[in-house]
Amino acid sequence: MSRVFPFTSIVGQERMKRALVLNAVHPQIGGVLIRGERGTAKSTAARALAFLLPEINVVADCHFGCDPDIPSTYCDECRDRVAAGEILPVAVRRTSFVDLPVSATEDRVVGTLDIEKAIQRGERHFEPGVLASANRGLLYVDEVNLLDDHVVDLLLDSAAMGMNVVEREGISFTHPAEFILVGTMNPEEGDLRPQLLDRFGLA
Questions:
Q1: 2 in any annotated domain
Q2: Number of C-beta neighbours around residue 61 at 10 A
Q3: Residues 6 or more apart from 34 whose CB is under 8 A from it?
Q4: Which of 33, 119, 161, 197 has a CB 3.0–4.6 Å from the CB of 192, allowing a cystine?
Q5: How confident is the model over 153-201, as pLDDT tens digits?
Q6: What percent of the residues of the chain are helix, what percent strand, and what percent coil, each to the nearest 5?
Q7: Residues 22 and 44 in one domain
Q8: Domain check: are 68 and 162 in the same one?
Q9: Is the domain of 29 the same as that of 124?
Q10: Contact at 8 Å (CB) between 111 and 104?
Q11: Whole-prediction pTM value?
């Protein structure tokens, strides 16, 4: 991670900082929406918060960073490996900071299932999306008001449930998607629909 402005050095903006810390402590709050004009330290605060978060234990070769200490939250791949008698290797890594581009599509966010492999070879192959990278980390969405409404719904659903379920043609894949959701927006560039605004835990 490049040089980050320290969270504790941000002057003022007490409500914003309190909301970020509360959501970091308890991500099930459902996300934080920060509204403000350019130059009000919105993105700076989000990146600074991520830098404060502790290192975490993960299943070493898992795409989703599953928590080795909580088997009930394992992804389908880790569950299958444990069922086959494998002892999962453990590694330590920094909490991830994932930046979601405004142009992100549904498949880019949730991931995709390879239906062709499933039909031809009987194999379930899942290509992880942004939610996989963000699991147990911080997912930052700048200009969330410019994101497709359906994609915002997907993010908020995952933030509330703590998991991502992808289903295609009767085939499904489930993985944990517990993350700190931080969305920022400049009201001068348009607002969120009230239905979406109401779904953010803190605004």
A1: no
A2: 11
A3: 16, 19, 42, 45, 46, 182, 183, 184, 185, 203
A4: 197
A5: 888 888 888 999 998 878 889 999 999 889 888 888 888 877 777 778 8
A6: 40, 20, 40
A7: yes
A8: no
A9: yes
A10: no
A11: 0.85
Query: Whole-number mean pLDDT of the chain?
Result: 87
Q: Say if CB 102 and CB 145 are below 8 A apart.
A: no
Calculate ∠ Cα 100-106-110, nearest 5°: 75
74 and 17 housed in the same domain: no
Task: Give yes or no for a contact between 43 and 140, defined as CB atoms under 8 angstroms apart.
Answer: yes
Number of domains in the chain: 2
What range defines the domain where residue 139 resides?
Answer: 7-52+97-197
Instruction: Evaluate the CA torsion angle 68, 74, 78, 81 in order and state its sign.
Output: positive
- How far is residue 7's CA from residue 53's CA, in Å, rounded to a whole number? 11
- For the chain, the first-to-last Cα distance in angstroms comes to 27
The two tokens of residue 88 are 């999962």
| C-alpha–C-alpha distance, residues 183 and 188, integer Å | 16
Residue 142: partners with Cβ closer than 8 Å, 6 or more residues away: 42, 43, 99, 102, 184
Q: Measuring CA to CA, which residue among 102, 80, 70, 64 is closest to residue 190?
A: 102
